[in-house]
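Input set for joint prediction.
Command: fold jointly, output tokens.
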Amino acid sequence: MPASLLDLTVDRTGLTRRREFMASLGVGAGVLTLGWRDLLVAQASELQKQGKSIILLWMDGGPSQYDTFNPKVGSPNQGPARAISTTVPGVQFADFWPQTAMMMDKLAVIRSMRTPEAEHDRAITHVRTGYPPTPALRYPTFGSLVARDREVLDQELPAFVRIGKPRIKTRDVDAGVLGVKYSSFNVDEAGSLPPNVRPVVPADTLRRRLALADRFDSQFSASGGAKEVADKKSIYDRTARFVLSPRLETFDLDREPAPLRDAYGRTNFGQGCLLARRLVEQGVSFVEVISTGDRNDAGWDTHNNGFRDTPYLAAEVDPAYSTLLTDLADRGMLDNTLVVWMGEFGRTPKIKPDGGRDHYAKGWPVVMSGAGVRGGQVIGATDADGIDVTDHAISVADLCQTFCHVMGMKPEDEYQTTDNRPVKLIEGGAVIHELFS
Amino acid sequence: MMRHSFVRLLQGSPSMSTLSSFRGGLRTIGTALFFCGVCALNLGLADDVTTSPPLTSAQLDRLVIEAAKLDDADLADVVTDEQYLRRVSLDLIGRQPTPDELAVFLLDTSETKRSVAAERLLASPEFGKNWASYWSDVIGYRIPPPELTFLDYTIFEQWLADRINQNAPWDQTVRAILVASGKVKDHPEATFVGFHGADTTRLAAETARVFLSLQIGCAQCHDHPFDEWKREQFHELAAYFVRSSAKMPWNDSSEIEVKDKGKGEYEMPNVADPTKKGTMMVPTFLTGSKLENGKSDIERRTELAAVVANGTNPWFAKAYVNRVWARLMGRGFHEPVDDIGAGNEPQLREVHKPLTASFVESGFDAKELFRTIVNSKAYQQRLTSNPSLAEKPFAAGRTTKLRGDEVFQSLVTAIELPNVTPPKIEPTKDIRFPPPPKSTKDLVSEIFGFDPSLRPEDISRTLGQAMLLMNNDQLQKQIDAKPASSTVLAKLLAAEEDNAKAVKRLFQLVLARQPSEAETTIALEHVSSVASRPEAFEDLLWSLLNSAEFTTKR
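tokens >
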């Protein structure tokens, strides 16, 4: 069997393939649906690593390590947050995280991120694309790489969904050179669908109209518009599948029991985490939930009044995060879902007079769970005052390598930019193997 | 040999009028001998700009026939009047014709009516608006959003639209863009430098790409793999911008101010060890023309503008002609249009060259270039459903996707889609960076928009586009056929009791043409299959708006 068959991927929605696989066979789309399962069965071991999803909980603005998952008891840098015990002896969190502390058996806490960028736009670009910022190329965010990898022939839901809005729009990173096809599908507010998704006429009427448009398109196709009509048809077929899909119910949170919704927290972030679970359950491969606190556009960027705002932000995330982990575990989904908690950097050891902290990229935390990650462990360390990493510095490339590992993507795979330059998914770095041992 | 070609270049130039460009030119001779030998050879300087009388449309056709190895008959098969008016209206004024415009045109029996129509469109203020929006997209799609400032291109587009409508020579317009200083609101032409944050390397790469269609961006870090660009050449170009600064205000991009830093020279970073001191660069253009160090910001950029926007370099005029040709003809001499470097094999070089020469000769008269092309038979070729003809370069017309603004304007023309802008949210202490409100036009343009420098095959239709045309409630309101809605459709149905005639008017409204017999049959079958006449016609209008043809230039 040719090596290219190893490129097959599968997810919970059924059967999937990669573009490269199609291209390598040099055949049209229709042909490949034949004998699909046979091919897949033959590659069962390869497929075990597939069917994975990532939920990224994005703490927009850069949360303080002292006030989250690396408190420095006794250090003058600690500030007012006290440390509390977790379910693993010796591991402590800041006291704003009582529910998450009870989840420590599911968490791998990395305390030693060390990255070069400490300005938001540059750090966001770096952390979310895996590449240092450069004017030469707009690298895609990781979710777009996943969307490209998990392109599904007959998909109804998008592969990459983002819930919540980035606090400052000018800093956003998208599919970049991969193009809009692999952009995230954005749900600004969990519980309601974005504009233009839900049909404004009954489904029957929409189908009738689509059929009529098809007939006119055939006329245009016969008079020289064949290419445009074929282009249009493929995107309309996909769109119609989506907007007429019963799976749009996935976005409707009223279908969840009220106590569970309460447990996640009735905040945009809390309900976003619930929606993330519902989406992953339906086979969506990459979901991002953004935490900004909703009250202002400072989010986790707590320069001023950090000691006032951080408890508020944590109170939004703590119940949502812990409930998400429990909910995923209860449904047997945690084994296939990597949950990542992170922002673009941490905050300075030095406390400002008004109780805030500035940007700091040495020794900031990332927390992971699920998808084979061994819970209950701490990876890396910073010194007693949290000034710098003392053990196992982790880079952005290491993180992205790890994401690739979980998703069964090959970091050395290349995509083409619009001007035909080959770009590797990720360059450099190494999988953080301790996570899985 | 090399020297000869440079001398010919200088002598052949009609626009060597300014002192600075003349100075630049003289230096070109001096430096070319030792510096530019290799690259000049590769760029084919010798065959580029020569003196010749302005090209007529008939001469252009002759050139196309010879270069593309076509029969005269291939070009004789031109589009119908209806097809021509829609094509030329979209290309020149960025929207389809109204039913009235179409009716007047069809009634005209004069032989020159196509060129008269083209003339009317070239004189319309919509011409400048359309092409200003094109250039604003060319520039804007590659400007990453800066930290905390929302870039608004409206002021720049208005400025550029005025220039284009006045038919200001293209070289002068580009010089104004490269030289401009001050606040964007007072000097909209400062947008290019200002929105790039006066970033030296970005401006070097983008000046070359946007105005010369040269890809030197990767020479920032290493010698160019295909073309002959050396890393030094990239950084020498960046050195022209080293004293520019741009103050980025919060939120409002019209307050961006381009100013002289007052000091500084450019250093090329040390690749081997970036912590070490770099190499100081002398501002030098790609032809080898140099400026000494120590010059002010304005002196540097004035000199750069003079050497860039100039018919004596092999790229400036060629790049413009290539872009216009590509947009009008559906494919460029060079694809992608922003890469005419030596590494990229062109189509119909024998057409591109004289058309470029003619453009230079005319003093960069853009309207004349448009006129020459849209009056040619090559431009007016029909689409073909014959695959072998479709594959043959320039043997038949080719479809292109409408740009975002064109889709919006066509929706306005077809169904009077209103342009609604939500109220602006003022920044507060808590919400410091509220995104500016998006009008209907902004939304449609954004969703249907694409980077015009991409190859046509890299521009894909999207889920968002399909969803907007399928489900947008503002659009659906305009599709309402109930008399009380007083939409275009409601009025049409009230005025036209005969279904066949109503179908015909609907086609003219949405697709700017009459339906074929087969299409009339399809439409009437549909009307009789749906119990309610208004509902049947709502379906029809929806289907035409959602047809592939509506968003396609054909």
